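Hi,

I'm pasting everything inline rather than attaching a file, because the server keeps stripping attachments. The sequence lines come first, and each chain or strand is labelled.
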Amino acid sequence: MTLDTELATYQRLLPQLLDDHGKHVVICRETVVGTFESYEDALAAGYARCGPDAFLVKRIEATETVYFVNRDVGHSCLT
Amino acid sequence: MPHLTVPCSDHQCLLRFNVGVTRPRANALKEARLEIPDPRPATALIDSGASISVLDITLIRALQLTLTGSVRIHTPTTGSQSVNRLVYDISIHLHHQDSSYVVERAVPVAAGLLRQSQEIDLLLGTDILRHCLFLLDGPADTFLLGF
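And the predicted assembly:
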């Protein structure tokens, strides 16, 4: 299970989404469900639209934040 | 602010609490007439060197979570590169020791392998700590977490 379609949609629409910089966008397949101030509101909208299936919540940023973890947390392909 | 004072364990800040599905996910599961997994006990290591929290894959599977995000992450094993890491939404339930005060908060967590190698379930990073008061009392070998 991946979010390839949703991530590609996010990258494609990022120039327009930057009008809502800092908000959280919800994308279900190729559809933008909406943008939301809080993570909790974005989650609620995502589950209301997609049910318990996968969807993407992403903070809208011109340059994506890289998070740092100083411990080894294993490989990256965990589903 | 309610707080817990906890003895350190081998100079590490370890905390037990419950991890469950978020309310929106519980609502979606109920709507789809699917079972809502019970919250699971978890051992968390407070790690101010982690800017995102990480949950062990065993709990992700036990809670039957589905993907709700993706982040770029840099760890000691990713070299000079950052890599994409899958993200899930969970609720954490912090219980105050002397009262029935409970905090439930929805947070995004990256998936990781922690239980096998480090005997913890959750790396509690600064993304969650920024909602809390965290004090480490080194000489007393205790820490305080206010929430």
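Chain B has a mean pLDDT of 91.

If the labels don't parse on your end, tell me and I'll reformat.
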